[in-house]
Amino acid sequence: MSDNLPFEIRMEIMKRLPVKSLIQFRTVSKPWKCLIDSSDFIAHYSRYHTQMQHILVSYESVLYPQPIYLSIADDHTFPQHVYFNTPLLLKMLQNLTIVGCSHGLLCLLGFYPKTRKYMAVFWNLSMTRVIPIVMPNVVYNKTFDTCISFSVCRATTDPKIIKITYIKSASDIESISCIPCQVEVFSLSTGAWRSPHSNLPRKSIIFYGDVAIDGLLYWHAKDRIIMDGGFSSYNLIISFDITSEEFREVNLPRSLAHVSVLYVSKLRESLVVVHSGEEDNNSFINVWRMEDGVSNLFTKLYTINVDTLNTLDADVNGFRKSGEPIIQISIDDLPTSELVVYDPYSKHVDGVGVDGIACHFFVHPYMETLLLLDQPNFAVYNEMETIRYLDDLVS
């Protein structure tokens, strides 16, 4: 880039470049490195830079002991894919699961055997940058369960972890007056956890899967009600504003209130509710979209007839930006599944070229980002609000 251009013009050009080019430019000169590494440039780039959407796919293979991560460009080259090198830290964690994906960051959770603690990890998929966070008060016992979610604040580009403890069994709801550490929020900008105390979810609510969309987290949840000496429950959506840190309830249509198989997903920047069921021995998948963020205003987009897919089982794992669902279908009687793209109008199915162990797929859209570039790599955030490096834990 010519040094004869005014600084302001050069900066505007740089804001439009892909992440890999910016990483290379950091080695050209110290002023450029200082600019690209600055928190203001990173935040502005993450908020306003528009670029090609990618699709992250994670899966497990019967031939490989570790999870596999790959990226598919959601353009005319689809489904060509590029594999990620898994950071060493992730290979050190046991029972590794994906918490969520937001603003180009992937959040994972695993158990670190050396310290016998759960650890969350922020991973920038566009660069080899990982940030571990020691998780306090993670409870999995007969009485309580812990739901862990992740999103990046749209206003501040601050990555946050939301940890919710809920009562596992409906029979314990009346006897438990207070849930300890019910909601805790970690912000990377402060490196600390805090506990909101207002407008918390009712203790009768149990949490399932979640999705981050446009500054909000949405959970599929159930509210359990004591009645006539027994219990009844209904489906609902719980939302959490990442900026204001406030919870809200979203009502579902009556036809979805009491179905058994339900999960949330993301179609572009809209909340999607996917319902799987069976009627007259025919398996189906209904895809609903929430309209304009209005509670109880959902439109059914289409129905997928599973029997026409020539498979015994099918699950919607995600969506292309075109709206086509990416579906996991079983392969004969084998314990493996493959990913396919389904056209809801022509009913045509195209393979993605990815197969792995059934029920171990994660599919989510993402954009490249500079987030975490200004963070020290492998710095460990723990519950005492201090930072130490991974070497201190593994030595």
Structural summary, described in words:
11% of the residues lie in helices and 48% in strands. By secondary structure, it is mainly beta. The protein has a four-stranded antiparallel beta sheet, with no helix packed on it. Strands 4-5-6-7 form a four-stranded antiparallel beta sheet. Strand 20 and strand 21 form a beta hairpin. The radius of gyration is 22 Å and the shape is globular. The model has no long low-confidence stretch (mean pLDDT 88). It holds the Pfam family F-box.
How many beta-strand runs? Answer: 26
As a percent range, the share of strand residues is over 45%
Please state the average pLDDT score: 88
Q: What is the topology, as strand order, of the major beta sheet?
A: 3-2-1-24
Most strands sheet: 4 strands, antiparallel
Quick synopsis:
11% of the residues lie in helices and 48% in strands.
What descriptive keywords fit this protein?
F-box domain-containing protein, mainly beta, 395 residues, four-stranded antiparallel beta sheet
